[in-house]
Amino acid sequence: MNIDEQLMNKIIETTNNIDICWGELITNHIKDGMKGLDIIFKDTDYIINGLSSIDNSFQVSMFYDLFVEIEKALKSKDYMLVADLLKYELKTVLIKCDLKNKCR
Q: Which domain of life is it from (predicted)?
């Protein structure tokens, strides 16, 4: 399996985990949602590092700005906002990552 396949598989896995975490958070299963969020953060770190190593012009800022918003929502314990940022923002960015490892 080459890095493109590994990265694409991780992106698919992470988007699936986002859906699961979103469901946990919106149904007020915060403990399970936080466990899922931890996995999503680790997987997203792997994806960012993989994309950065392949494409020197890869812009990490799109992820950074989103993580700042997630951090603010976590600090205020707004788990509905965290869930929505994951599903409607982070998942959208990850889905836009194609086999050429370019995020548009």
A: Bacteria
Q: pTM of whole model > 0.85?
A: yes
3-state helix, strand, coil in the chain (%, to 5): 80, 0, 20
Q: How far apart are CA 43 and CA 41, in angstroms?
A: 5
Contacts by residues 20-24 (CB-CB < 8 Å, ≥ 24 positions apart): 21/83, 21/86, 22/83, 22/84, 22/86, 22/87
Percentage of residues in the chain having pLDDT higher than 90: 66
pLDDT at 60: 83
Q: How distant, in Å, are the alpha carbons of 18, 33, 48 from that of 21?
A: 5, 5, 20
